[in-house]
Amino acid sequence: MVQLSVYRPPTQVEDEAPEVLSYDRVALRMRDRRFADIVNRARIERANAQCPSCQRVTVQPIELGDAVVNRNGATVPGTATVVGFHCNACRHEWPALERA
Question: Is the whole model's pTM more than 0.85, yes or no?
Answer without folding.
Answer: no
